[in-house]
Predict the structure.
Amino acid sequence: MTALPGPIDEVRDLTPAQLRELLPTWTTPKVIRGLVADWPLVQAARRSPADAVAHLKQFDHGTLPVTATTAPPEAQGRIFYNADMSGFNFRREQIPLKVVLDTLLKYHGQAAPPTIYVASTTLDSFLPGFRQDNPLDLGVYDPLASIWIGNRSRIAAHQDVPDNLACVAAGRRRVTLFAPEQVGNLYIGPLDFNPAGQAVSLVDFAAPDLVRFPRFADAWAQAQVAELGPGDAVFIPSLWWHHMEGLDDFNVLVNVWWRSVPGWMDTPMNALMLAILALRDLPPAQRAHWQAMFDHYVFEAGAQTTAHIPAPARGVLGPLDEAAASNVRSVLRRRLDR
């Protein structure tokens, strides 16, 4: 590939108040340098991995094991499928967090350690008190804060429905981002069988096979890349594809997910799966008819869509709230269970 990815747009010296004001206006990725540089965990990690581990251990109540993903040294940190995609190249096991942390310190500095990766672990459940000591108030609706801990790792490009602010607390991370419309150039794998719940790109970013995946060169030309150090953060908007690499022997990432819509709204992925079931294999003419229906009722819906129907009679076409959404789910359950 001859084209080089461009940098992610950067902002610096943001106060928490400024960040809360700017976040709702951002629709493209941003790197925020030094956002959490004052966190005690970041300060500890800058001293040594052992100090970072000691900081984390003080919040570990020890009653809940974490889910640890491990892969052999030959995986070279890539958490992925096995060779024929009948399974995966890693295993998961329930382990006390302190054991994981001690094992990471044990392998620190070794040239070819096994990959150890604790992903998406809810902070308030597993490390109560951490957020009070390392605060990040984004002023967003119903935030979910998680921690990611491991050694060198490569997490295939995937996307999430919520917006995401990811903060590097220890080690360095390389983040590679693609706009949602690059989906056709990233060679996405199965929607319903994947390493961690989200469909992933099948391209190995360390050695892209452009014979098998020729359109990836087009995606790469549109990519945005940044290397983040302790204290830095990246804002990843909803549905932006992101490839994440932990570059050091000890890495910690803390992220916050949120959606700017009410909690009763369903995930659009459910609608996509149902559309595959109900629409994808229709005859082309019928698919075109349904495309017009979706444009009218969903993608181009406005006041004109229902202006001819009395407001009390609009049913699902009217404004939705939690009660109306519950009724829609009940109808769908009955129809899907027929």
